[in-house]
Amino acid sequence: MASLTQTPAWKALEAHREKMAAASMCALFDGHPGRFAHFSLALDDFLLDYSKNLVTAETMKLLFDLARQEDVEGWRDRMFSGGHINVSEDRAVLHTALRDRSGEAVVTGGADVMPGVRDVLGQMRAFSVAVRGGIWKGHTGEPVSDVVNIGIGGSDLGPAMACQALAPYHKPGLNVHFVSNVDGAHMAETLKALNPETTLFIVASKTFTTQETMSNAATARAWVADSLGEEAVARHFAALSANESAVADFGVETQNMFRLWDWVGGRFSLWSSIGLSIAVAAGAERFEEMLEGAYAMDRHFLEAPLESNMPAILALIGVWNCNFLGAQAHAVLPYDHNLRRLPAYLQQADMESNGKSVTRDGDPVDHHTGPVIFGAPGTNAQHTFFQLLHQGTRMISSDFIAAAESCNAGPERHAILLANFFAQTEALMLGKKDAHAPHKNFEGGRPTNSILFRKLDPRSLGMLIALYEHKIFVQGVIWRINSFDQWGVELGKRLAKEILPQLTAAQLTAEADVDNHDGSTNGLINHYKKLLGRGS
């Protein structure tokens, strides 16, 4: 098979890029009064405007040709139908089944996964109702006032982001916290304000062996046991895992274990029992409304032709900017304070998925893959890194995200926020020329997408997350990489396990220097020993 960059569709896009070298966004708008209508797309009240990109109708046709050449629709259909598209781990990729509302079977490995999905969803509903209603009692008979989710990566970023986004729907007096960092300060700061009698811990780990998560869980367990006794542990812990024996050994009653499946990747798992903290914080009904929003985007992605398919178009615009116009980074800019954790969530979802340099067939790629994802909420970001977006030497593409109505402020206050939202994409596109003050020149022509919806509620949040999940998937297919493994995180974890025994008290007091690593790592470990006043 020819490498991607040698294929007809790729070559056609390269030739088209040369034709577009002298084009400008401003000229494209001037020459096409209906440009906004032509290069925007709505799904319900969810709008994607991609008109402020350096694209024409010909650009989009060539991008759709590329998508069809790389069989995006075929890969999409195989994902939804349970095909093992995670080729390096020989697994299905079925996070979409977790929010499937059709009532139809979803089969992988000869078995319908939907009965199990519905069972766990019912278990989550009952548990969240019990906790929110004060029915679940701790060891001393007190209802729960604080829930602490202990996880890392997808077991933390997704539910933490969604809980924050749905803050207006939280039950008053029930607080949800997230602990992920193995640095003891994170757990210590969280526990400082909590009462063990009224605190419930949710330990999220598919294997129940994740080092950071289980270290934090052990600290929480000791905190409960020291205060209330060993027999109290069962009433203050729930587990999200596939390892029943390890959960039982920890002291969690197995009826308070919520199942996970190997066909759900961590960064796509907030729809599963990993979302239990969301259901507890915002309510099971709201959690299920979020599933319904994601399902609506799933159906659109599955059924709409590429030319009117929102995730596919967002993905193809990204490929054009990254691979043909030279954008090496992409900013995610939510103009909603409750979406402030979305950029961090998408850093994992995108960069762990598409940060790959080897194709599905094991060959080196000959093109760029995932860009660097970063971001912060507007308007804060305008007063930090927007200077680089406007006048820096690097071309950076951006997504601007906003709701027409605020959950937190009146219309006059919200209008200030939206005025900035609209103004920034206009400024990035138009630029500004000042012959008398070159330092005030703005080049303009910086590509942006705008995503606008009526209100940040559970349904729109589900649609937004699913939109980005499918965008990531489409780009992975086009780049010929596996978006659903993450071998790049494994090497560091393995080496950390090898180094850890060298940091025991006995090893730290040993006179002999460590010498079984590279020169820098040896030097760092030995200097660490000296800083502690031990060893040579």
Write a short abstract of this structure.
The chain is an alpha/beta fold and 536 residues long. It is built from 20 helices and 13 strands. The chain folds into 3 domains: 28-69 and 304-485, Rossmann fold (3-Layer(aba) Sandwich), CATH 3.40.50; 103-286, Glucose-6-phosphate isomerase like protein, domain 1 (Rossmann fold), CATH 3.40.50; 490-531, Phosphoglucose isomerase, C-terminal domain (Orthogonal Bundle).
Structural topology:
Blueprint (H helix, E strand, L loop, with lengths): L7 H12 L5 H7 L3 H4 L1 E4 L2 E4 L7 H13 L2 H9 L26 E2 L2 E2 L1 H19 L13 E5 L6 H9 L9 E5 L4 H9 L6 E6 L6 H18 L8 E5 L2 H7 L6 E3 L16 H7 L1 H20 L6 H15 L4 E6 L7 H13 L17 E4 L10 H6 L4 E10 L5 H20 L17 E8 L2 H22 L10 H10 L5 H5 L9 H13 L5
Parallel strand pairs: 5-6, 5-7, 7-8, 8-9, 10-11, 10-12, 12-13
Antiparallel strand pairs: 1-2, 2-13, 3-4
Helix pairs in contact: 1-4, 4-13, 6-11, 7-11, 7-14, 11-12, 12-17, 13-17, 14-17
